[in-house]
Amino acid sequence: MTTTQDGELQTRFETIPFGVRRSFQQVNSTINFEVKRHKKNMLTSFGVVVLFYILSLLINVIGERRGVESPATAGAYMASYLDMIFGLFILIIAVMYGGSMIALDYEKQTGNLIFPKITKGRLFVGRLIARYLLAALSVTSYYILVAVTALIKYHTLPVEALASFAWALLYMLAVLSMVIFFSSFLKKTSTTIVISLVMIFIVFNLTSSILVIAGIEIEPLFILTYYSNIISQSFSMPTERFFEGPLTPNPDGPSGFQWITPSATGAAVGMIIYAAVLLIAAYFLFRRRQQK
Amino acid sequence: MPDKEVEIVISLRNLTKKFGNFTAVSNFSLDVTRGEIIGLLGPNGAGKTTNMKMISRLLFPTEGEVWIRENGDLQRLTAQNKDVLLDQIGFLIENPTFYDQMTPKQILSYFAKLKGYPKKKIPERIEEVLSWVKLSEWIDKKIGTFSKGMKQKLGIVSAMVHDPDILILDEPQTGLDPKARREIRSLFMDLKQQGKTIFLSSHLLYEVSEISDRIAIINNGQLIAFDTIHNLESITQDSILKIQLLSIPKDIEKTRAQLESIIKPLTGNKNGSGTVLYKPNSKIFEVHFDGNLEKQHNILRELTKNEIDVVNFSVPRTNSLEDLYISLVSGVTKLTPETQEGGI
Known about the structure:
The structure holds two protein chains of two kinds. Chain A is mainly α. Chain A contains eleven helices and two strands, in the order ααααααααααββα. Chain B has a six-stranded mixed sheet with strand order 6-7-8-3-9-10, sandwiched between helices. In chain B, strands 2-1-4-5 form a four-stranded antiparallel sheet. In chain B, α3 (about 105-115) crosses α4 and α8 packs across α11 (about 320-330).
């Protein structure tokens, strides 16, 4: 908006016209902006990575000091870092990056500035990519630390680590999708985080326990946390997929049926469907959602 | 394409927004023409922000439509063409809230890129718009450290960073100190000089009346007046003339009647005003008339000619627009349909 020497209004600049190029530019700008916006979160998530790594390392070290036999292979050793505690790690990283993705713009009213400037679809895609990349970076950092430790201890790395890493990334996408889904309709980021934690820790685990106690033999592909088992189990594939036997130490007590590991196909399809359904639902809820 | 001087760039047609049983905006219709400044005036909760949000599609109208000119034609705003139609508009909706950890440079750069502003020119443009609101030195500071007024200024320039032809600004001067308000008023006038169209809302009559070509008054979600300031002011046609005499007459009623006989034929009030009243507390005679300066002069001349000892003769400069605004929003004054619809 400048005037020429003749005092005439200079014509409007040539904007990049709408179309594929503009869409890509908007998504790309959103990714870059989101990465800059989450610089502080990146530091925090790196702290979480280090914390979880140290906790797992301590468990292993203390166990060895107390006479627990070390895992025989590097794969088994790496798997010990990727059991239950790793599920918690994934969830923390997911809520850290996904909890605010949509809810924050309604909670803090930042959407008033952004939404008129870009379609919600492009904003959604840009943010999703950025946040997934950041979350994946945390997973990668954790795997690097674990791999380096295993390499130091066993002087070798199992090729299965790559498969495990891939499963971890896919599981991260599924969990992130669930958090984003909650973020798309809940009013506050904090509520999104709490509901996500309750869903993963309480609802899914209770459902899983009910299925075992009831002796239901249907594979729980609808329980998101079930898929996390493949991350550590992938070091010893093929592995037992279910357990059937007494639920108590008493052999004459009631018996149950527990699924342990999904098949590779089941896990891949299940997690992709989980992520796709939740992300599509989140997008449509976001699109229909209005400011206060 | 119609004549540029009266080219409608935004047309709000029977906009209605309901939240459950509550109707925030009801059948709101208004046309914004290119190059003008329109002030949307109304008390808090009148429906100003809801209207602005419906234009920006932050809210979806329950009924009615928003039409925006694009490539010479008015087009109905929908979810599909939102990006194209809103590209030429800069919005500031409510008090701007930013991501505290970001800097003005980062935020404005992002917004400019989203709107397709040429990448190479973005740094220069950001410096330019920040200089307008005296925030150049804060370009790399985190917004979380900004005062409310600074955030407001940043909100205003964030609507302008991509150099839109139309600006829609919701309460742009909220939180600004008097000096900053003056600067922003001056900025808006500069933008108007450069051919920009500005549609701004406020509950502050002075801020709107100083710069607007036309004023729309909204109350309880309904448009109750829309016209030029001159036309709106002339609607009131009521001023009070105060006359103080040298001494308090012994026979007040006789003096009052004498004054009335002199003044009444000169007031020209259609509704029969011109009746002289005596205010014992202030010991002043008051006469209602239409504020016409010539009539005021005639009254003074006739009083002097009749040897009335006038020592004080004044028409207090009450803001007639303010009076009208207050009487409209309180429902005392009702306008004719012609005035409600306004004219160009």
